[in-house]
């Protein structure tokens, strides 16, 4: 028998964007069919994040063909997740958006647009304040 080298592959969630419930994400998930592997993107709204440590998971819901809703649970540390893209941020006031399950069609996908991240606005304000002090000659 030939010995196979076993390699433990873990995904690194620190490279994933910071997302939460209400955000629209695109998860690139590796599907293995027989001896072939392909990457399938899955885009939808994050309904919830739960768990702690290496057992963290998140639920993504999308509206498929014929207005049929499909929910999928992804383990955050799964080696089958190639990457996660943050498509848009949502402005919601709940950590679990299970109430969207009762909504039908486009109504289930309607979430307010999120605001700009705070860190990017601080950099712009800091640059403007240094520009004004240079113009006036004050330190």
Automatic annotation (TrEMBL):
SUPFAM superfamilies, A to Z: Translation proteins SH3-like domain (SSF50104)
Entry GO MF terms: structural constituent of ribosome
UniProt xrefs under InterPro entries: Ribosomal_bL19, Ribosomal_bL19_CS, Ribosomal_bL19_sf, Translation_prot_SH3-like_sf
BP GO annotations: translation
Keywords: Ribonucleoprotein, Ribosomal protein
UniProt xrefs under Pfam families: Ribosomal_L19
GO cellular component terms attached to this protein's record: cytosolic large ribosomal subunit
Keyword flag Ribonucleoprotein: yes
Protein role: This protein is located at the 30S-50S ribosomal subunit interface and may play a role in the structure and function of the aminoacyl-tRNA binding site.
Protein family (similarity comment): Belongs to the bacterial ribosomal protein bL19 family.
Protein name, per record: Large ribosomal subunit protein bL19
Source species of the chain: candidate division WWE3 bacterium
């Amino acid at each position: 028998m030939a010995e196979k080298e076993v390699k433990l592959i873990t995904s690194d969630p620190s490279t994933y964007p910071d997302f939460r419930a209400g955000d629209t994400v695109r998860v690139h998930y590796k599907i293995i069919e027989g001896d072939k592997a392909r990457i399938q993107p899955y885009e939808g709204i994050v309904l919830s994040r739960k768990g702690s440590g290496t057992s963290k998971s998140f639920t993504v819901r999308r509206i498929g063909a014929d207005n049929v809703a499909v929910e999928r649970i992804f383990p955050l540390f799964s080696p089958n997740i190639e990457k996660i893209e943050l498509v848009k941020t949502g402005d919601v006031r709940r950590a679990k958006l299970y109430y969207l399950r009762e909504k039908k069609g486009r109504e289930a996908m309607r979430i307010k647009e999120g605001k700009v991240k705070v860190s990017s606005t601080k950099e712009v304000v800091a640059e403007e304040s240094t520009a004004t002090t240079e113009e006036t000659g004050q330190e």
